[in-house]
Amino acid sequence: MLENFSTGRWRLFLEPGHPWVYSLYSMTDFSRYTVSIGYDRRLYHQDIAGSVAHAKMLAKQDIISKDDAAQITQGLETIEREIREEKFPWDPALEDLHMNIESRLHQLIGAAAGRLHTARSRNDQVAVDLRLYAKEVMSEIAKGLRGVQSALLELAGRHQNVVMPGYTHLQRAQPVLFAHHMLAYFEMFQRDIGRFQDCHRRTDVMPLGSGALAGVAYQTDREFLAAELGFSRISQNSMDAVSDRDFVVEFLAAASVCMMHFSRMSEELVLWSSSEFGFIRLADEFTTGSSIMPQKRNPDFAELARGKTGRVYGDLMGMLTMLKGLPLTYNRDLQEDKEGFFDAADTLTTTLEVFQAMLPGMKLNEERVSGLAGESQMLATDLADYLVGKGMPFREAHGIMRELSQHCDDRNVGLQDLPLEEYKKFSDHFERDVYDITAESSAAARDNPGGTAPGRVAAALEEARKILEVAGDGF
Predict the structure, then answer these.
(1) Structural domains of the chain sorted by starting position, each given as residue range(s) with its CATH number in brackets
(2) Whole-prediction pTM value?
(3) Residue 137, SS3?
């Protein structure tokens, strides 16, 4: 039976036998406002790992007995098994993950459970849980990004020498190799991996032992805890350790940039799969039909990735806004650090899964893209370079090609379809060899580092494969 202590609008219930277990209820059921068990329960593995390490450290330092530590560890292992098997008796009245586990531990092992929280606060406990979880998530994201990069390289290798139109302002600009285009996304995701790696390094700091804000009044061994939990170093300021959520902000910023890259790719997949472009065909499992138009093959997965980018941006802005006015140290506002973090992590990881599966099944219409690569006035820059090669200053050559391109547009003909006599009206430098300029020769001419020439792209592909080989499936 619970004892009832009324305090104005609130009632505090203390359970006899272990007064360290409590829950706060509103007389008008406002208690749900403070409950976090619905989302923080996903940290159960990290919470239990932190508690096991803490119990071992307390025993090592003779702060609690080895027998108590053994009972605590055994009880926590039972609890973790119960949670995994979905047999754990979650109680919303206990508000959060930590109180649920402590309460259950007391039921399992009795008074020894009360010694676990020695030299520890809920503040440094939740901080270590979230850091452990964030490190694991970032490792999984790096693995997923490597998978997407691998899919991009497979696509690039499959169509290595196919020339396609390159765009600026969504207008056809210059011919490029399709593989060069795919490698552009490889570079974006390589930077994303670097951002998560950098964030992982700053997340890899062990806050346990900071107490509520001022440290703890026991001779603990924080270096031991860091080693047990896989942290590379310990925090240096207890006040900062319990209130720092910079690593969450950094994660959300990195996730936002990464989703932006997927959104850009999604936009191209949407455009390319349209009848107007006709560049690609996505596998049936990644398109959907229409409720009334039977011919439709909508690129819904790409569209959803493009749309979900906005929610990750929102998670970042929500976190920054929540943190901006907090005084040191811990404030209950920090309970709001998890839902946005979890949402962004889930959104990005599922997006990675989708693209790893979707990209390998994408079919490129080589004939279509190659045909368009030399159409319109896409070779105008090459013709300007041709005139430069004949001794003309580039600005003069640029002006001539601008007039010549307008001339072709007015007559609805391509540069390659123009008779030599028409060319000579604009410059006597034009000779029969002007027709040797093609989309393929245009790409081949860009034979400098980072360019789209076949040899440069082949070397870039090889370098990208080496990057994946060395990195494996992680950082």
Answers:
(1) 3-115 (1.10.275.10), 122-167+177-219+233-370 (1.20.200.10), 372-471 (1.10.40.30)
(2) 0.91
(3) helix
Q: Are 148 and 352 in contact (CB under 8 A)?
A: yes
> CA–CA separation, 214 vs 210, rounded Å?
6
Instruction: Assign 17 a pLDDT band (cuts: 50, 70, 90).
Output: very low
* Active-site hit among 103, 139, 169, 261: 169
Find the catalytic residue in 290, 398, 429, 441: 290
In the residue annotation, 181 being an active-site residue is answered as no
Contact 143, 56 (CB under 8 A): no
Report the interhelical angle of 178-203 vs 122-158 (nearest 10°). 170
| pLDDT tens, position by position, 389-399 | 999 999 999 99
* Selection from 417, 349, 427, 366 nearest residue 393 by Cα: 427
Asked, as a colleague might, if the bond just before 321 is cis with ω within 30 of 0, I would say: no
Kindly report, residue by residue over 393-440, the tens digit of the pLDDT. 999 999 999 999 999 989 888 888 899 999 999 999 999 999 999 999
| Annotated catalytic residue 169 | yes
Q: In whole angstroms, how large is the CA radius of gyration of the chain?
A: 31
User: In the structure encoding, which two tokens stand for residue 229, read together?
Assistant: 């939990």
What pLDDT does residue 29 have? 65
3-class DSSP state for residue 233?
strand
Question: Is the C-alpha dihedral spanning 404, 409, 414, 419 positive or negative?
Answer: negative
Pairing of strands 363-364, 280-281: antiparallel
**DSSP 8-state symbol, 288:** B
pLDDT score, position 16: 43
